[in-house]
Design a protein that fits this description.
With 153 residues, the protein is mainly α. It has five helices and no strands. The longest helix has 31 residues. The chain is globular, with a radius of gyration of 19 Å.
């Protein structure tokens, strides 16, 4: 009985979001929309970018309100919030006997995050917004991470 009520509440809270996504992203698994797979990918990526922006903004506001530094909020909440779904997906496919798919999901999502999550905004900044500019990295930890990776290669 309690599960039924919680499912109804969850449905009521998520319905507007599901409706907006249904209206804005073509379902390319249906024959009518098959040829729009790239549009589906681009729109899905744009929605993820929008959701990510709001997630970071909300975590920043919560951290500021509670007096927790941005670095700590990013390491704990944002990193965990983005890694847990990938971990769950990898576990599910690994249990189905698809270990190679689990590994590719783990590696692929991180590569996508680095190349698209950092590359696209930085590329837009240096090519379109302020042509010929450089990107100033304010976080010392990001520079250290890149230096360590560069030394290993």
């Amino acid at each position: 009985p309690a599960d039924g009520k919680m499912n109804k509440i969850k449905w009521i809270l998520t319905w507007p979001l599901i409706f907006v996504l249904f209206c804005t992203i073509p379902n390319c698994s249906k024959p009518r929309w098959e040829r729009f797979f790239m549009l589906t990918f681009i729109l899905s990526t744009l929605w993820i970018a929008l959701f990510s922006y709001f997630m970071v903004w909300m975590v920043t506001v919560i951290g500021y309100t509670l007096g927790i530094p941005d670095v700590i909020m990013g390491i704990t909440f944002l990193a965990a919030g983005t890694s847990v779904p990938d971990c769950m997906a990898s576990l599910i496919v690994a249990r189905q006997g698809l270990g190679d798919m689990a590994v590719s999901n783990t590696i692929g999502s991180n590569v996508f995050d680095i190349l698209v999550g950092l590359g696209v905004p930085w590329g837009l900044q240096t090519m379109a917004i302020d042509s010929g500019s450089t990107v100033r990295i304010l976080g010392k930890s990001l520079i250290c991470s890149f230096c360590r990776v560069k030394k290993k290669i």
